[in-house]
Amino acid sequence: MDPLHQALQIVADPTNLALLLAGLSLGSLFGVLPGVSVLTAVVLVLPLTYSLTSEGSIILLIGIYVSGIFAGSTTAILFNIPGDPQNACTAIDGHPMTLKGKAAKAIGCAIISSALGGLLGCTILILISEQLATLSLAFGPAEYFALTFLGLSVVSGLGIGAYGKTILSVLAGLLLATFGVSEVSGESRLTFGIAIMNSGFSFVPVIIGALAMSEVFEKAGTGVDLSQRYTDRVFRIKEGLPSGGELLQMAPAWLKGGVLGTFIGALPGAGATVAAFVTYGIERAVNKRRTHFGTGEIAGVAAPETANNAAGMGTLVPLLALGIPGGGVAAVMLSALQIHGLQPGPLMFISQPVMVMVIFTTCLIANFLILCIGPWQARYIVRLLTLPAYLLYPAIAVFCAVGAFAVNNNIFDVWVMLGAGLLGAYLRTHGYSVVALVLGMVLGPIAEGAFVQGMIMFSSPLEFLTRPLSATMIGIGVVFLTLPPLVRFSASLRGLTDRMKLDTSGD
Amino acid sequence: MPDGPGTLAANRGLFAEVVFVLAAVGALAFELQNSGLTVQSRMWPLIILGFMALTAVLLLVSALLAGPPDSSQETAEEPSSQAGRDRPLNRYKMMVAYAALVLLLPHLGFALTTMIFVPVASLLLDMPLRLKYIALSLAVALGIHMLFSEAFSVPLPEGPLERVLLPF
Fold this sequence. Notes:
The complex is a heterodimer of chains A (507) and B (168). Chain A has 507 residues and is mainly alpha-helical.
């Protein structure tokens, strides 16, 4: 039986279908709750996957991921409170539509756009990931180093937060990955004579602490009480269906969002938030009705919602094709696969073709099911916004402790998770990037291994630039790294010349 | 041009962070150089430490040249996603409570520790002090324990007291 048929049988298994529906529901729940991101949801569910099959784990995580990306749009539209940063752009035109009495129309548009974006992204994922995987078989250490450099440069250049602080966060993540026994030489580094430090900092407890616990610490300091804001804004499907004219208005936004979103998402480190902002900005600049943007324009909802779901699929491209996670959630999926003894990358297409097909099939079905989950979520799940924070956050904290302990059945990992949580809370409140720290930690071992191997092969680091592909990727990475300070420098130069012109004209 | 003392005072937090980073970089570099490691093992972390020191210094210089920090530029990780009532003390209460949970976990076991932690943390986060809410928080703790230990068979730490008080 060919891999596709086997994959369809696996996904159609009642247990796995139940896991997919559970994942879609959990993703909706976490996506809707402000203060609990879809990344937190995926991290919290990770320990539950230890007792599942590898296929079941991935199906559950994909379900959470796909519906979680979309779910935050509901609160963005209804209450001007995005459930996740990738839904922030949706609020710009979505909430004004609510104020004009068109909430159902906005939510309907968001549901359709998200499903289309995800399906388009998934199609591109299926078309290009195997080709990219084949191409990557020719990758040597120089190319892998260049790719990780590109990913970390994109995070640094495009990351939310202060530029210099994001770079420091990336470097801190790279440094954390060096503690313990070196994978390259087998020697213990930075263990300070403590035996338990030989294993270094496990990736999963650091992720749980830095991403989930830090969010709990931060949000515990802000009282969440939306119960008074929830009025009877009941979603009715008929009111949510767009007219023919509205479909024509949204179509160009769907196309731009789908294609751009997928390719931005495929850039390691870029992610759904960047894709949503970039696509919204472009749509706002080129749309015929651009003067209406910000006042409740339907294309202003369609563009970011298409882009963020497409980017969600795009982040799986480097994970599957190269074994390099494109973002935080992909990094967690990498952990989930590794826990079950699977290693994503080009060889996975040869050694585990059924698993690859399961991922593709699940992504397609999950994105299609948004059309069913969306209306249900808008009617019922949004009521969960009245859940009190004093129960929610302690419960999440307990989940985090379990998740950290269950990796190696070791209390040390729970301490690591606590430390990462405190560090993450500090970083969040002082303008540093926690996602950059995590990506640095994930990509660090890959970058170090490739760099050291390259240095053994070549006589000088400059020889990394003699190979065309690695030179191109390093060049693009340098552009991303230097763009923000150059833009700031040219803006300050322009300001200076404007002031000089004013001074001379005043004379 | 910014005022020198005013700028330094305004960037006090950043100055402290940079000093901390430079001190940590120095200490770690010293440890690496004196631990008898081969060049292959030392090279990568030393490169990272070098870039960290450089970035920290450039960050401070750039902040001093730019003037007092603009709070609209240096934002936290995510855009503010809600307008809630700010209670910063709750943040620290949660941290202390959680540290206590981690300390007690190996001694009391998971079930007992969470049954203490969840109600206490909820009360610290302004849960009303009423029997029904405390019972609810205990139910949440027990529910999570049953979910992981029974439904998903995830091994959880057991303390000596737990075996006596909670034989199930």
